[in-house]
Specification:
Blueprint (H helix, E strand, L loop, with lengths): L7 H4 L4 H7 L2 H13 L6 H17 L6 H10 L1 H15 L7 H18 L4 H26 L3 H20 L4 E3 L5 H7 L1 E2 L2 H28 L7 H23 L4 E2 H19 L1 H11 L1 H6 L4 H27 L1 E3 L7 H11 L12 H19 L4 H28 L4
Helix pairs in contact: 2-3, 4-18, 5-18, 6-13, 6-16, 6-17, 6-18, 7-8, 7-9, 7-16, 8-9, 8-16, 10-16, 11-12, 13-14, 14-16, 17-18, 17-19, 18-19
Amino acid sequence: MTEPPAGPAAEAQVDPRLLVREQGFAGYLGEFKRRVKGGELGSLPVVVGLIVIWLIFQTLNSQFLSAQNLSNLSVDIVATGLISVGIVFVLLLGEIDLSAGAVSGACAAVLAVLNVNNGWNPFLAIVVAVAVGAVMGLIHGFFFAKIGVPSFVVTLAGMLAWTGFQLWVLGPNGTINLPDNGLVSELTSTYFGYVIAAYGLAAVATALFFFVSWVGNNRRRAAGIPTRTMGDLVFRTAVLGVVAFGAAYVLNLYKGLPLALLIFLAVVVITDFVQRRTRYGRSIFAVGGNIEAARRAGINVAFIRISVFVISGSFAAIGGIFAASRISSASQATGQSNVLMMAIAAAVIGGTSLFGGRGTTYSALLGMLVIQSIASGMALQGVSNSIQFMVTGAVLLAAVVIDSVSRRSQKASGRA
């Protein structure tokens, strides 16, 4: 039997992550520098950017990081953030959905008409409105995947069609007010005032993160795959715990944990799990990375494409419902104006690539925090909307430039 190679050849077979851990802090620092040079930036740019934005606005106005402003900010990000979650799924394929804003407005109109004008149970009206959004997404996906119409064109047509549908559903009045004490309005007006609610969520999230990481480590160890050290797990859990309990402390200084934020966080965590931990999610990344390779691997490309647009339409509808809840009404303005652009910008600013195959639904959360922080900070300073749009546009351009440079660096280092 042939002996395994010795010397340098044998050393080359050692996983570099094991060597990094043996070198301690210096090894991790070197690995971090290597990943940055190789274009593996992850969420680093948006996190750094968010910290800088908060520091600047807090310096300009001490009310920016007040409990009330941060609590309001956490609710303001939900409606567009939910639309952005659906956009992330589409962007992972390297495609675009220009109809999301119109779908959100149309579904909010359907909800209002059913609930207020026709007296339907609000829960049933919500279910029907989300189903309408899913059908709209199904139509887009069918023409894109089966007929071959480019996603840009089919969703642009959808944007025009669903805007007209929204106006038709609302009728001549154009605005339908929702009951202030109804289920829909309570989605964004409900707060869990008990201190234990926010702290309990922080504790559960921290413990769950450690448990999932620990179980994953054990599975890798059983499979003979390099794992993280216990020190790594404890450090990462501690960082998450500091952020989670810090957020809980701030929220409890005002009204407590907002129901809308709780729902948004649950959506982000669940959709991230679907993307990274399920066969369906991995198929989305595969199709977005290389459609021909995915087809040869036996993935039903048409199904993935159609289903992604169904998901986008569904989340657009949910986002429209939360937008209507925030102002207790559905009108011709719901889902219009800059809603679509902000949803797409949030996904891209948060780290989802426009070129497909890379991203996460956490991008929607991080991106919306950046966008809404800019809007909130400038509102406190009395800056006009025109300046807000220009600054947000500059941030979006910076995010796309970083993404492009990152991809180029990855190709140069052989990691793309």
